[in-house]
Each structure stands twice: as structure tokens, then as C-alpha cells.
Design goal:
It contains 12 helices and no strands. By secondary structure, it is mostly helical.
Length: 287
């Protein structure tokens, strides 16, 4: 299970560079809609015999897909107005919201170990994301990003909740399609109110097309499929803590590929995140 979580985070982290390149060419809505619709089509073709659609599956899968689509939109829109550091840090607030969502909906008591683990890991994310305290300021982009953190917390919660009740292949397929449709709906808003027309011509470029396929397969199809599988077996808060490996891999890849500096603060952030994950996982055989 730990190996699968590492793969999920590594794949999500590796898409940072490709997503940044694609956003210079394509609109937010085009990127999100194509990413999830392509993943949904591929998933539907490969697992068509395992997908069994019912009213409950469509309803529950649509809830996850709606939340996921909104979360993605809020994060990318927020990134247009805020810094990458603020975006990474504020998005990670989902780890703070999840225990309270479990408390309110599941009446699950928040243990002292969970509180300590969440606090330690969140401080670690802060150290990784914010290199200069003097540059830490907040604007409207941060409000969008905070909304992403909240919705992502609900996405993690409902995946853990519904995968224990429904066929995960069916839920995944519906989530992919609904998330893609959310992107298409926002595309209509971009065209009508912001006069942003998708750059369809760029899709014919081999380089851009390969990046889009990479994003759809390696950033969406594979990690989201693994996410549903893993969260069927572990608690939402533990899953959320495990997903905090993503910023660690992002930093490591940035150091290797982009030659970003690696200092004591970065090392301390990584150590704290790993400590939080290890602490909450200690004694749990299913993680």
C-alpha cells in the first residue's frame, strides 16, 4: 500500500512541469476538460466490462466528479493570481479540514495522534512552500486556492466513503466524465464572458499533443485509479497525510530537472512531512 501511495504522489508531482508548459498554450478549461475526458475514454475502453452503471453509482460518482472538477478549476484559477508557493501551501490546507469533516459527518473522534501528525506535516509543507516569510502575502488568488483546499478535502472524504459501497471502476469512470464536463462548462463561461477561445490548432503540434496525452494518462488515468483503489482500504485523514508526499517529490524533481536550490529549510520540511506520515501510520497494518 505504501508503494502505491508513493507512485500516486510521484506521478502527480511529475506533472507540474508539463502542466505549467501547457498552461502557456491552452486555457484552463481546455486543459481540465481534455485531461479528464481523455482519461475517461481510455478508462471506459479498457475496463468496459467492469463498469456497471446504476442510479446510485451515477449519483455518487457525479458528486466526486463535481467536487474534483471544481477543485481543479479553483486551483488553476487561483494560480493565475497568486504565487506557486502560496498555491502549494494553501492547497495543503485540506489536511486541516479533513479530520473535522470526518468528525461532523462520521462522528469520528479526532485523536491526539492525528492532530499532532497533521500539525507536524502542515508545518513541513509550510517550510517547503514558503522560502521567504517577507514575501508571504495574500490576495484573491489565495481565496480561490483556499476553496480548492476545502473541496479537495471533501473529494478525499467522499472517495473513501463511496468506494466502500460501490464498484470503484464505475465510480472512477463517472468521476472522469463529470470532471471533464465541468471543464467544458467553464469553457463556455470563458468564451462568453472572458472572450478566451481555446487554441485548438496547438493540439496538432506533436509536442503539445504528447504533453496532453501524458497529462491525461500519467497525471489522471493512472494516479486517480490508484487513488480510488487505495482509499477503499484506508481512512481519509491517513490518505490525506500520505498525499503530502507530493510536495516532497515536486521539490526533488525541481532540484533534479530545474536545478532548484536545496537548503536546510527544504530538508527540514521534508523531514517534518515524513514524520507526520510515519506518526499517524504507526501501528496501522493497512497503510
Amino acid at each position: 500500500m505504501i508503494f502505491i501511495l508513493i507512485i500516486i504522489n510521484l506521478l502527480w508531482a511529475s506533472t507540474f512541469i508539463f502542466g505549467k508548459i501547457l498552461l502557456e498554450t491552452f486555457s484552463v478549461s481546455f486543459l481540465i476538460s481534455t485531461r479528464f475526458l481523455i482519461a475517461g475514454i481510455i478508462f471506459g475502453i479498457i475496463f468496459r466490462k467492469k463498469i456497471k452503471l446504476s442510479n446510485n453509482v451515477i449519483y455518487r460518482g457525479s458528486i466526486i466528479g463535481l467536487i474534483n472538477g471544481i477543485s481543479m478549476l479553483l486551483q488553476v484559477i487561483g494560480l493565475q493570481y497568486t504565487t506557486a508557493s502560496n498555491s502549494g501551501f494553501i492547497t495543503a490546507t485540506y489536511i486541516l479540514f479533513l479530520p473535522f469533516i470526518e468528525l461532523v459527518i462520521w462522528r469520528k473522534r479526532i485523536t491526539s495522534k492525528v492532530i499532532l501528525s497533521v500539525t507536524i506535516a502542515f508545518i513541513g509543507v509550510f517550510l517547503l512552500s514558503v522560502s521567504d516569510l517577507n514575501s508571504l502575502s495574500f490576495n484573491k488568488g489565495d481565496i480561490y486556492t483556499l476553496g480548492c483546499g476545502v473541496t479537495f478535502a471533501f473529494q478525499i472524504f467522499f472517495i473513501s466513503h463511496y468506494t466502500k459501497q460501490e464498484n470503484i471502476f464505475s465510480l472512477l469512470f463517472v468521476q472522469f466524465i463529470i470532471s471533464g464536463l465541468i471543464g467544458l462548462a467553464y469553457m463556455g463561461i470563458e468564451i462568453k464572458y472572458f472572450n478566451i477561445v481555446p487554441n485548438f490548432d496547438a493540439v496538432t503540434q506533436i509536442k503539445m499533443a504528447s504533453y496532453l496525452i501524458f497529462l491525461a494518462v500519467f497525471a489522471t488515468f493512472i494516479p486517480f485509479s490508484l487513488q480510488f483503489y487505495v482509499q477503499k482500504k484506508i481512512a481519509p485523514t491517513i490518505a490525506a497525510l500520505a498525499y503530502m508526499l507530493e510536495p516532497i517529490f515536486t521539490v526533488i524533481l525541481a532540484v533534479i530537472i530545474l536545478s532548484d536550490p536545496f537548503g536546510c529549510q527544504t530538508a527540514a520540511g521534508i523531514i517534518l512531512i515524513l514524520s507526520g506520515i510515519i506518526l499517524v501510520s504507526y501501528g496501522k497494518k493497512n497503510v
